[in-house]
Structures are given as structure tokens and as C-alpha cells.
Amino acid sequence: MALYITDECINCDVCEPECPNGAISAGEEIYVIDPNLCTECVGHYDEPQCQQVCPVECIPHDPNHKESKDDLMAKYKIITAAMG
């Protein structure tokens, strides 16, 4: 499933550059994750990089966007093909 950023976000700017899919951007008040671009770093890394660097641990799984590892890999292939 995709990830999302909660209201605990402190806008520290460390997650955005870590996202290999460009899914994280500055929102009106806090950073946001585009669920259409989030693959939890499947295809790139073993662990979601934004979760690894977040100092306040405010990036949980999004229960509104449930996806299997196979779904995330399929999304990764579509995204990387579009970027290529």
C-alpha cells in the first residue's frame, strides 16, 4: 500500500529528496505523498526511504490505498517506463 504523511510532520525537508519516484512534495501545510507515485520504494530499495529518514516517524501505511508487493512492483514498472 502507499504511504502517507500525518499531521505530526515538522516540514524538516528530509523525505522529499529521498523518494526515487518523486511522490513526495510540499503541501499547503505539510509534505504530502501522491499515492499514484508511491511504491514504498519497491523496485528501488528494500525499505521505504522516507520512513528511514523521518525524524518524527510520521509516515505510516495508507489504509485507503492497499496494494500488494506485486501491485507495487507493477506500479514501479509503469512509473519507471514513463520516466525513461
Describe this structure in words.
This protein is of the alpha+beta class and 84 residues long. It has a single domain, classed as Alpha-Beta Plaits, CATH 3.30.70.20. 24% of the residues lie in helices and 7% in strands. It is built from 2 helices and 2 strands. The chain has a two-stranded antiparallel sheet with strand order 1-2. The longest helix has 15 residues, at 69-83. It is globular and about 30 Å long.
Q: Tell me the count of domains.
A: 1
Low-confidence stretches: none
Strand order across the largest sheet: 1-2
CATH architecture classification name: 2-Layer Sandwich
Shape: globular
Q: What do we call the CATH topology?
A: Alpha-Beta Plaits
- Main sheet makeup: 2 strands, antiparallel
- Note the run of SSEs as H and E: EEHH
Report the C-alpha radius of gyration, rounded. Answer: 12 Å
Number of strands: 2
Domain 4Fe-4S ferredoxin-type: 1-29, 31-64
GO molecular function, one term: metal ion binding
Pfam family, one: Fer4_7
Keywords: 4Fe-4S, Electron transport, Iron, Iron-sulfur, Metal-binding, Repeat, Transport
SSE layout:
Layout: E1 24-26, E2 31-33, H1 49-53, H2 69-83
Antiparallel strand pairs: 1-2
Protein name: Ferredoxin
InterPro entries: 4Fe4S_Fe-S-bd, 4Fe4S_Fe_S_CS, PSI_iron-sulfur_center, YfhL-like
Keywords: 4Fe-4S, Electron transport, Iron, Iron-sulfur, Metal-binding, Repeat, Transport
Short structural summary:
The protein has 84 residues and is an alpha+beta fold. Helices cover 24% and strands 7% of the residues. The chain has one domain (16-83): Alpha-Beta Plaits (2-Layer Sandwich), CATH 3.30.70.
